[in-house]
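Request: Could I get any protein with tokenized structure?
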Amino acid sequence: MTRDQRLHGLRLVPAPSAFVAGACLVLAGACSAPSRSVPDEVRYRVAHGQYAEAVQLAADAAAKSPGDAELAAAHRGASVAFMVEQGRRLTFEDKDEDALVWFGRALEVDPQSKVAADWRDKTNRKLAVRWLDVALELHAKDEIEAALAAYETSMRYAPADTSALTGRNLALMVLSHRVSLGHTYFDDGLHALADYWLELARSRFTYAHKYQPTDERTADRKKQVETVLADQRVAIAKDRESAAEFGAARIEYRLALALDPENAEAKAGVERTKVEMEVNTLLTRASMDIARGRFDTATKFVEEAAAKTVAQKDLCQGKLDAIREARLEKEYLAAIAMERDYRYEDAARAFGEILSKTPFYKDAIARRDTAQEYVRLANDLYAKAAATEDKAARLALLQQIRVFWPAYRDTEAQIEALTKELGS
């Protein structure tokens, strides 16, 4: 049940301003006839915290005897006690503004009520201290304008409070000093801008705007300087970009955007250099895969980079050439390994494949021809050895083959057999 419901039907003494209306719950059941006089019974119930019953009893009695001064005084006292009690409960709930309304009503009914005046003063002091704490905290955070408002609110509840008065005066002095500083910094910024000391001018206009946040001139001048500085950053970024230093260029473009968020060239440069940095990453990964012999993967990375880039097309083509060169080198080394393993036929074919891709790759022509000559010569010598009946002559022919191709067919076994026969 709300307070308004409980007050419904309760007849309080109206305040002179007619602000107080009847409220509170109709008392359940009829009041039993008191054994004491009505004024004494009213005082008794007030003393025992039965404020609503006391008001109701006094109101009923006063209505029956309109000219009875004692009953009117009892009704007035019960009403004041009831109002003070409502205010007390609200201030205990930290609803102090509402509590002050009730104490004010009580003092309108009885301006001489010490209890109502005491509770009003206590609540005012409570609110003054609360707002003083807020003001001090804001002051410590350097939020001077908000602190000044809080000091003044505190003084509304305690006009003579020296702490709030001192704080308010200090806040006023700081604000006054800052206005003066703002003018000084603004003038310094104008001089620096005239001499084209742009960074110095920007810092001075920034300080001026801090101390004079509502002055449009400081904001306009600051923006003017930042636009010029942004254009300078863009020019530096373009130089870095033309030198293929895309990371450094992107930093400069982003600094330009921080100064002038609407700079179209800086926005485009940020996106463009971002793409070129991604291309750099892809080409780096391709280089790693080339070193590891993973040429197909490297080719995919390079092709992806080539599809994205605008400024690094030549670099992508160079990387594809590097992949092709690495493939040929790998095939070349494999062919040499076949040659050294006396696999002349395989080596000749391998060198031939290399030459079909690159006609004059290193010494592949000479090596292919040499391997082919070894194959032809070994076949001729082997055929002659097979055709001769003279064992010594056959041994000599086979030994010639062994000089350049020890593992050719069964030459080693024949040489060993003929050596034994001729030795015996």
